[in-house]
Design a protein that fits this description.
The structure holds two protein chains of two kinds. By secondary structure, chain A is mainly beta. In chain A, about 0% of the residues lie in helices and about 50% in strands. Chain B is globular. The chains are: A mainly beta, B mainly beta.
Chain lengths: ~120, ~110
């Protein structure tokens, strides 16, 4: 099966610093990757869609200057939480879809990253 | 944002017993329904992608049914085993040409030995 690797799994940082989370598709090309955020006992909330070679599209209410997304290659997308504050503490998880998969194509997920901002 | 509701939020099952739980979604403009299994400390894994009303899919002891007219899907686990303990998520594409999924909050299943 397709594998998506996400790093780091855990990160603790001081308020005001920036944190980068990487999402890699290890054995397939992912033209599109998705970034989600999850609060306790809530559903995965889509933050943004990362498209290889173009700008990310952000969901309503998500600050693009706060959550910088870069999709530099067909196998790597990064999410940078800039000037992190305690309210940014959350669980972030990425997923990827194979090239040419329609909306019936399954998503392949990373393991997620737990961010704690002190 | 489409509302995808899952119930119950959690359930405990004795090993060997069977169980089922529900995913409800808007019945208008249906495109597909996804089920994922998410074990603790692992990545969510796709179980099924269902597209046709009346569809029934099976993978081992786990099966799912789909009713697009009334907007629900059931996931069944037959003869639950401890390794079935996980959170089961359903998800729904928001548009026909949109690969973005709206997720339910999940049903967390704990199988007691």
């Amino acid at each position: 099966g397709a594998v998506v690797s996400q790093h780091p799994s855990w990160v603790i940082c001081k308020s005001g610093t920036s944190v980068k989370i990487e999402c890699r598709s290890l054995d397939f090309q992912a033209t599109t990757m998705f970034w989600y955020r999850q609060f306790p006992k809530q559903s995965l909330m889509l933050m943004a869609t990362s498209n290889e070679g173009s700008k990310a599209t952000y969901e309503q209410g998500v600050e693009k200057d706060k959550f910088l997304i870069n999709h530099a290659s067909l196998t790597l997308s990064t999410l940078t939480v800039t000037s992190a504050h305690p309210e940014d503490s959350s669980f972030y998880i990425c997923s990827a879809r194979r090239r040419l998969a329609g909306n019936t194509g399954e998503l392949f997920f990373g393991e997620g990253s737990r961010l704690t901002v002190l | 944002i489409l509302n995808v509701e899952q119930s119950p939020q959690s359930l405990h099952v004795q090993e060997g017993d069977s169980t089922n739980f529900t995913c409800s979604f808007p019945s208008s403009n249906f495109y597909a329904l996804h089920w994922y299994r998410w074990e603790t400390a692992k990545s969510p894994e796709a179980l099924f992608v269902m597209t046709l009303n009346g569809d029934e899919k099976k993978k081992g002891r786990i099966s799912a049914t789909l009713n697009t007219k009334e907007g629900y899907s059931y996931l069944y686990i037959k003869g639950s085993q401890p390794e079935d303990s996980a959170t089961y998520l359903c998800a729904f594409p928001r548009h026909s040409n949109d690969y973005k999924l709206s997720f339910g909050a999940g049903t967390t299943v704990t199988v007691r030995a």
